[in-house]
Specification:
heterodimer, A: 113 residues, mainly alpha, 0% strand, flat, B: 395 residues, alpha/beta, Rossmann fold, eight-stranded mixed sheet, two-stranded antiparallel ribbon, 13 helices
């Protein structure tokens, strides 16, 4: 664990760490890790959405209402740019779902050089 | 017993004091982060708002996930458990040992998904909090340093204390546990708010501790001059006791230096006036017969059985004749239970890192108290509904 108070007294002592990260609950440690990642991702995503709600609320007080945001019609250029961005995001976030794994980690290269 | 006059007087004083403290606290909360370089975000009643919107939102998510998990995912997990028991021809009501239960669930991920998600959520809760406090360590340390020597209460830290190994574990998988992180108190306080909401209800305003403190019994002669809270954690119960008995000398002791340090800083913001000290519950350093009331709040399931016995003996030493000892903790589960509750108990012990909880459950805690010179009150009332009611009086 990082020691944030190296130069001043913190009154902390050495702890005996838990071994939670070594636990396999789902039969495969990768699945366990993915669950933790998904929850962490959810926390990050929700904090972003919640910030947007705050921004909308603040903007409303300055004259920009949620209705104005809902009714906004993007220009053709904006639409094209945003679709490109959408497709990149989907490919990054979910493209791996189409992978078909069949080689073991010890398999040699199918073709090299 | 509390008389009508005592009650009425206390209630009137408490309203006036409460109004004054709320004003003081709102002011303190508004200014405290400015000292540390944060933009003040104000306070939600007694609770200083988390320093950033993102941190608050991350905790909001893990709370929401916990609520969903405790219903939907847990239910699916338990349904899977029942199916496994049915497949193996095991009666769900038959008491089993831990070992027998573990043999039933080995290699059954459909059961374990409930615990996996719960623990992963717990890890994210702690990590987001710890990351924040560490990223702003200088500011938060300065804030505590500024409070260390200030009143109205007092703070005693013992950096040379030989902290026993049993207390060094990362209980609830909180990184650093109660002794190993400079911000253990901060992390524990904000992190456990979601524990409370999912099990007992909202506690951001110390509602649980205030209601519980109001139910703790007092000595028959009505004299309450000194109160001790053994293993006080972040001092929520200790503060609630001082608010109930504003004229009493109230002490909170805990093995964790960062815990009592945070407790004192928070007590100061609230303007209450508790005395906090880094000391062991089995070696409190107080004189014999010093306290009218000695309580503890869910610490015994965090202790090895031998330490539980030592703490009870110490409580007996420092409680005055006629004084009340009320160690609040879970009902003991015994060494055998039906498979599902035994599974929950094991997971809490082994993977939520409640290292000593199985020892606690194997004890007859009430009998251990009675063996050490206390008279147990028959049909005692639970100060916190659903928990054990151990109301002891020193002869």
């Amino acid at each position: 664990m990082a020691d944030p108070g190296k130069s001043r007294p913190t009154f902390a002592a050495e702890a005996i760490p838990s071994d939670i990260k070594s636990g396999v609950f789902l039969g495969n440690s990768i699945l366990d890790n993915v669950v933790t990642c998904l929850i962490a991702m959810g926390a990050e995503l929700w904090s972003t959405k919640r910030r947007l709600k705050v921004i909308e609320a603040v903007m409303t007080k300055t004259g920009v209402t949620p209705e104005m945001i809902e009714k906004y019609v993007p220009s053709e250029a904006e639409t094209a740019e945003w679709e490109k961005e959408r497709d990149r995001f989907i490919d990054l976030a979910l493209g791996s779902l189409g992978n078909e794994g069949f080689r073991s980690v010890s398999a040699s290269f199918p073709k090299r050089g | 017993m509390i008389g009508r006059r005592t009650l009425f007087g206390a209630a009137t004083a408490s309203v006036a004091l409460g109004t004054m403290l709320r004003q003081q606290f709102a002011e303190a909360a508004e200014t405290m982060r400015a000292v540390g370089g944060f933009t003040p975000r104000g306070a939600d009643g007694r609770l200083a708002r988390m320093a950033t919107l993102d941190l608050e939102s991350q905790q909001d998510f893990t709370l929401g996930f916990r609520l969903m998990q405790s219903k939907a995912i847990r239910a699916a997990s338990m349904e899977a458990f029942d199916k496994v028991l049915a497949r193996k021809g095991i009666d769900p009501a038959t008491p089993v040992t831990v070992e027998e239960m573990l043999a039933m669930v080995e290699g059954e991920p459909s059961i374990h998904i409930g615990q996996r998600t719960w623990l992963s959520n717990q890890q994210v809760t702690w990590k987001t909090l710890q990351d924040h406090f560490h990223a702003h360590a200088d500011e938060y340390l300065s804030e505590m340093e500024a409070a260390d020597k200030a009143g109205p209460g007092s703070l005693e830290l013992n950096p040379q204390m030989d902290i026993p190994d049993y207390a060094r574990h990362e209980i609830h998988i909180q990184p650093g546990g109660y002794v190993g992180d400079p911000f253990a108190g901060h992390i524990y306080h904000y992190g456990t708010n979601s524990f409370y909401i999912s099990v007992l209800g909202h506690n951001e305003q110390d509602q649980i501790q205030k209601a519980t403190a109001a139910r703790f019994p007092i000595p028959e002669d009505g004299k309450v001059k000194r109160i001790l809270d053994m293993g006080c954690g972040v001092g929520q119960m200790t503060v609630a006791l001082k608010e109930r008995f504003p004229d009493a000398e109230v002490w909170g002791i805990d093995v964790g230096g960062p815990m009592v340090r945070y407790s004192h800083m928070r007590d100061r913001r609230l303007g209450v006036g508790v005395n906090f000290a880094q000391r062991l519950a089995e070696d409190t350093k107080f004189p014999d017969n010093y306290f009218d009331i000695v309580i503890s709040y869910i610490i015994h399931h965090e202790l090895p059985a031998e330490k539980t016995r030592a703490v009870i003996a110490e409580a007996h030493r420092v409680t005055r004749p006629g004084g009340v000892y009320y160690p609040l903790d879970f009902n003991n589960g015994g060494v055998k239970s039906p498979a599902r509750p035994m599974y929950g108990r094991w997971m809490d012990h082994r993977w939520n890192n409640e290292v000593w909880s199985l020892e606690y459950h194997s004890l007859d805690f009430t009998a251990e108290i009675a063996k050490r010179g206390f008279t147990m009150v028959k049909n005692a009332k639970a100060a916190l509904p659903g928990f054990g009611a151990r109301h002891a009086i020193k002869a």
